[in-house]
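Look over both lines:
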Amino acid sequence: MSKAVLSALLAAALSVAACSSGDASTSGNDLGTLQPGVLKVAIQPYAPYTDYKGGALTGLDSEILQAVAQKLNLKVEPEVTDFAGMLAGVQSQRVDIAIGGIAWSADRQKQGLFTDPPYYSPPAMAVKSDKQYKTVKDLENLRLATVEGYVWVKSIQAVPGAKLQAYPDGNGVIDDLGAGRADVGFLDPLIIIAAQKARPELGITTQYLTPPTDQEVKEKPAYEYFRSYMTSFYLPKQATALEAAISKEIRAMYAGGALTELIKKYGGEPDQFLKPAGHIAPLRRGVDRPADWTPPAI
C-alpha cells in the first residue's frame, strides 16, 4: 500500500471518528436536560413520598424517579425546597423536574408539563374507631380533620353537618384522632400508613372512601377532592423530549411489575394506587393528552 493511499485512509478514519465523537456528545443530551447527563430534581421533605437524608434521596417518588433516571443514563441531583419552590423551579427552568405530592391540574399544566401518573392517590381516611365509613353520606355530622390548606378542606366544608378541624400539619390530625377528639382524618394515604407503623398504640387504621358519583360532584363540585387524583412528575413546558422519555419508562414500570413492588414496599395496596378510576382519563383527554389517551394501569 502506498504512503499516499495509507495517508488517505488514515485521514478518512480520523474524520469518521471525529464525526462519531460529535454525534455521541450530541445524543448524550437529546433529552434536553439543563446539564448533559444530569437530571436536576426539586423535592420537598415529604416522607414517605420524598426526602433527602444522609446524602440520599428516599421515598416512593424518589425511588421511581431514580429507577427511571438509571434507564435514561441520567445522574440525579436533588434540590430541597418547599412545595411552592418546587413549582417555581420548574416554571422558571431552574430545575429539570419536580416530584412528590404534585397533583395534576388543568391550571398547573398551562405552565408546565406533566408525565403520565406513576401512581394514583386514592381518597384515604385515618380512622380510630371500629366504625366503617364507606361513602360521603357516612361522614355527615362527624368531626373531620385535615391539614390547613389541603384540598380536603373544601370537601369537608361541603359535607352536611360535618365539623372541620384543620391543623398546621399531619401530626395534629393523628394526635387528635388517637385522643378521640376527631372522628376521621384526611391525609395522603402513605402518610396515614406510616403513622400506623410508627405509632401502633393509637389504634389508627386506613380506610378508603368510595368516590362520589358524577352526579354528586355535579351537585357539589367540592366533592371532587373526595375522589382519587393523579400524582405526576412536573417539568418545564420546553422539556417535551424528557417528559416523553420519562412517561415511557413509567409505563414500562407498570407493565414490568416494578411499581407494584414499590407500592407494596411502602405499605400501599396496588389495586388502589395503580388502577385509575373512571373519572381520571377525561380530565386530561384533549387537554395535555390526545383524545384517546388511556392512563397507565396494572
Observations:
- The two ends are 63 Å apart (CA to CA).
